């Protein structure tokens, strides 16, 4: 096993488009790191550079204590699960899994033992004689993982492995990947555009945007303490609400929304936000911090009232969508609340959980 | 007011045609037969009938200039066993075809693989390779006849720079085989470069990347991934190339002594023999028997090729 170190790595396509802009990332041994971001953010390019399938324009990639910039993919001792599985269609499941070991001249008995063991872990023993075309999407996904684990590589790379599966199977396979990592602890780099996948699987999440790393951290850390507006908006479903506000001091620090609603800044945040008085700021508030009003009002919780635009009953909760001064707003309320489209609804905004974003730098202050 | 019941009127012709058309469309098999009928009829007249007529003629001692063309049963076929030129033509054709098929397809595959690594320039090269394919056999062969000329030919001139003495490419009974193979390869390689290029482009890049990560070398990727995935394309190419080369005639006719007064070795091939017997000596029955043997031989080869390339269950 080995860690992965990405140092000031740059990828420029045809001397023009810079897909990855001098990123740094340290992945510890046996750590599960997920690269997440929107399409075109450079996450797959980064993964392919680690695999050796893309040349590096500048910087260094280390696997363990070996600089691998000029090392061929087959000599990097890594295994990759592709988005479309990349199973060899003319080979049986057994041969697909054995191919990598055969190329490395493992004895026949050892190959058989490893394939059977991996097939047992992934519950695909009964499928070993089948060709990939005779398998379902989920089964193909398992075979692709089996092909990776039989080699016992230093690093596992996953390139959006669940994006071709339906929603139910995706949840099931997500759990299995997590279980697999717990069973066979190996350094893992996993790429996805699905932030739920990132949050549920990762030891640490790397949020990428426009070729740069926005933030690296544990899932809960990213959720509760996003560093930038992008991370705040990308992590969490439904996404965080953003409202433009003026921060001013009127005998107490307050936020004024564009349509005149005034929200007092909680006492615990006054020192932190004080220096930004008079600047254009954005208030960030997650839907779960905008709820129905409870009997007991807590300090830092403020009432906002607005007409309901859309009601989305989710079973375990109800999502309410509003427009405040032309900006969309989403609230999460208890499933037993009776609400109708168009009615004015009073919300409790828990400003103790608020985020304030400096519009100039885009950073959460 | 009472209702007036009119007697049934005979329907108009367009209405009856429309009903008939609708009925025929409901009856799927009838519709297919009617739709394909004209094409099938044409196919039978142009393709099947001449083959059947050739097979029929092969049982007769049919001579164009004679009134009496008696039935001889398998007599023509029996004579094939004694016919020296036919044996020579059969051996030559087999040798020529084997060499031409192997050389054409290996060269085409190598070119197609190389062209895959220069994706942007590939169409230009494919076009250049394809020019000989669209050039008619006869003018192309005339040019090659000049290239192979022992005294004034470009090939001997080029070889002279390397100290190679003049060679009689079309006069030497051994060299003429290789000269003919070279012309055939030059003519057909472009076609198979395009075919293999299509096959290679159809292989998902991810499979080759997966093989890279699995530790496969370039050779192992070719033999374990690329060639097995191109099996249908290779089968098509082997079959097509075999048929083309077994039916070789025009370049042999132009390049060898068969053409008017040409000082070259008389390299015999099956179609040349059929042409001589049929249209020089007018022994149509015997030429028919040779045609049937050629047909059976090529078909047997194709069956073997299909069996060899079929996907293992």
Automatic annotation (TrEMBL), chain A:
It is found in: Cell inner membrane. CDD domains: ABC_MalK_N (cd03301). Keywords: ATP-binding, Nucleotide-binding, Transport. It comes from the Bacteria. One of its GO terms (molecular function) is ABC-type transporter activity. Coiled coil: none annotated. SUPFAM superfamilies: MOP-like, P-loop containing nucleoside triphosphate hydrolases. One of its GO terms (biological process) is carbohydrate transport. The keyword Electron transport does not apply. PROSITE patterns: ABC_TRANSPORTER_1, ABC_TRANSPORTER_2. GO terms for cellular component: ATP-binding cassette (ABC) transporter complex, substrate-binding subunit-containing. Residues 4-235 form the ABC transporter domain. It is a peripheral membrane protein. Its main location: membrane. Belongs to the ABC transporter superfamily. PANTHER family: MALTODEXTRIN IMPORT ATP-BINDING PROTEIN MSMX, OSMOPROTECTIVE COMPOUNDS UPTAKE ATP-BINDING PROTEIN GGTA. This is sn-glycerol-3-phosphate ABC transporter ATP-binding protein UgpC. The gene is ugpC.
Automatic annotation (TrEMBL), chain B:
One of its GO terms (biological process) is transmembrane transport. The chain crosses the membrane at residues 29-49, 94-115, 127-147, 175-198, 233-255, 287-309. Its main location: membrane. Keywords: Cell membrane, Membrane, Transmembrane, Transmembrane helix, Transport. Residues 90-305 form the ABC transmembrane type-1 domain. GO terms for cellular component: plasma membrane. It comes from the Bacteria. It is found in: Cell membrane. The keyword Membrane applies. It is a multi-pass membrane protein. The keyword Membrane applies. Pfam families: BPD_transp_1. Belongs to the binding-protein-dependent transport system permease family. This is Sugar ABC transporter permease.
